[in-house]
Design brief:
single chain, about 15% strand, elongated
Length: about 160
């Protein structure tokens, strides 16, 4: 209610298993947003709404009018609607935060002053975009499947 009174919208996100964090157990950090939604439904009506912001959040409206976005990389593989790629400051293009695959854009960028080689490299990288990520706690792997930290790629 504090957020609704200030016209603030919330987005929660399930922990994303990216990068080695030492001995810390990511599995114990995981709380399915399905469970959070169930708790909210005990307090009142929770209605799915079609709002989209271009990202992976799925939005609901609470009985009090507050809007909440759920980002669920573990309990719901949202990849079917993902249209994002990330380019690092070192010229690597990652087409999925949940996969290791990437392409190097430095070579095409430096090859010529024309844009054609770079455009071709970007199109080729996007053509390799996977259909889904590999965050899977059902295997009970603490470190997930991605070795790089989210701050390396940019989230």
């Amino acid at each position: 209610d504090w957020c609704a009174a200030r016209d603030l919208d919330l987005t929660f996100i399930e922990v994303m298993p990216m990068g080695d964090i030492g001995n810390e157990d990511r599995v114990s950090q995981y709380w399915s947003l399905k469970d959070l939604r169930a708790r909210l439904e005990q307090r009142g009506t929770v209605t799915d709404i079609p709002e989209r912001t271009g990202g992976p959040a799925r939005y609901v409206k609470l009985e009090n009018g507050q809007q909440i976005g759920f980002i669920t990389p573990l309990s719901h593989n949202f990849c079917e609607s993902c249209n994002r790629v990330r380019i690092t400051c070192t010229g690597e293009i990652y087409t999925c935060l949940g996969q290791e695959g990437h392409s190097d854009l430095r070579g095409p960028l430096r090859a010529t002053e024309g844009d054609a080689p770079l455009e071709d490299a970007i199109r080729a990288a996007i053509a390799l975009k996977p259909k889904g990520h590999d965050f899977d706690y059902s295997r009970q792997k603490v470190d997930g499947q991605v070795s790089r930290h989210m701050s390396h790629t940019g989230g």
